[in-house]
Amino acid sequence: MRRIAPWALVVLSLTVGLASIPGAALAQAVPQDSAALEEAYNKAFQDLFGDPGNLDKSFRFAELAVQKGNYEAAITSLERMLLVNPDLPRVRLELGVLYFRIGSYQISRTYLQRVKESPDVPPEVQARVQTFLEEIDKRLTRSVFSGTVFTGGRYTTNANAGPTSTSVLAGGVPANLGDQFTRQSDYNLFGTVTVDHKYDLQTQRQEFVESSGTVYASEQRDEKQLDIMLGEINTGVRFPILMDALEGATMKPYLVGSSIFLQDGRYLTTHGLGINVTLPWHKRLSTNGTVELREEKFRNDSNRPTASQQSGEEASLRLTTSYLLDERTQLLGQLGILNQDAQTRFNAYGEKMIGGGVARIIPLDGIWEKPVTVALTGQRVISDYRGPNTAVDPNNTRFDKEWRLSMIGSLPLGEDWTAIANVQRNIVDSNQPNFQYNATSVSVGLQYQF
Length: 450
Prior knowledge:
Layout: H1 14-18, H2 34-50, H3 55-68, H4 71-84, H5 89-101, H6 105-116, H7 123-140, E1 143-156, E2 167-170, E3 173-176, E4 186-200, E5 208-220, E6 228-240, E7 250-262, E8 265-279, E9 285-298, E10 312-326, E11 329-340, E12 349-362, E13 372-385, E14 399-412, E15 417-430, E16 437-449
Antiparallel strand pairs: 1-4, 1-16, 2-3, 4-5, 5-6, 6-7, 7-8, 8-9, 9-10, 10-11, 11-12, 12-13, 13-14, 14-15, 15-16
Helix pairs in contact: 2-3, 3-4, 4-5, 5-6, 6-7
């Protein structure tokens, strides 16, 4: 009988398991043709049923079961192999990874620890086993903190979102703005800190309390009225749904609140609730959706004496679908719908967004040991306001069409540090010249992940 598998070829479930660890999603194996896979799986089952003590047939069936996503069947087959021959460290490795994949971390640790203690394990396998053991330690800890710190600088050609031209409307009559009220270029320094907390409720349904807090601040060089500080926090319980039909599907109802300060004065506070749903349709296809309802309260000050007229309820729906084209390329599709109520009709509007993008991992062989990731995205946004603003044009209601285009590049500098550059272009076409504008911004910064 041939050897089960040399260490260099132990890929039955190792890739599948690693795909569950954050940051490894683009490393998933591309599945075979479903019809051919189903036929091979059924044949392997019949072969094993006729000769259950054959280790080769057991291992072949386990391989195909993993490709089908039937991890329980693969586990059963591999454990039967250990009953026939307990001295199979390669099989223990596969079992450790499969138990990790289904969330049985204690059993996974037992198998993987045995593999680590085996005398003939190659260094590269030892390293991967250690990665799993470290991840298991994190997941068995009831309370886990993680987050990012990102800081850098940005230049924009239109910091104040000013109109492109000095020719505008005032009461429906053509008028001219002073140059100081049109678009103004500026630089700023910015920083953002995000802290995530996950608390395991240790229920049989694998429920977690997930909380996240973000603080963002930027300071302009010239346009000081645009200095901003934002804080937001949300918390809720994430739990599995559709367990029999869709493995890995989850839902999280949550509470959310935020506050924005402009030029050291409180500008906006919000509170509300939302629901987030993740739906992994396939190894390569998943959808993330969020429905949210917020109460927004704007505050007047000397620079914005009518800001409170924007106060009202905001309802939104956001959908993002991700498709893994291959191990280095990811496609994105986006859809968004927003309804913004306000105290005055000309501040209330509905918004529709459709977008897409592509992310590509590009090796830098001979230049840098880690690959760069480049993402291109584009969005088309339509904004339809509810009533005319008499100060601008009493006979026409504002209607905007906008393009949002961006290119983001990220380059890992180490285990925790990443350099990120972003170029963004916004083009707004409006039926009222007061709101027509375009802007290009370029930002660079460093991100630290903990």
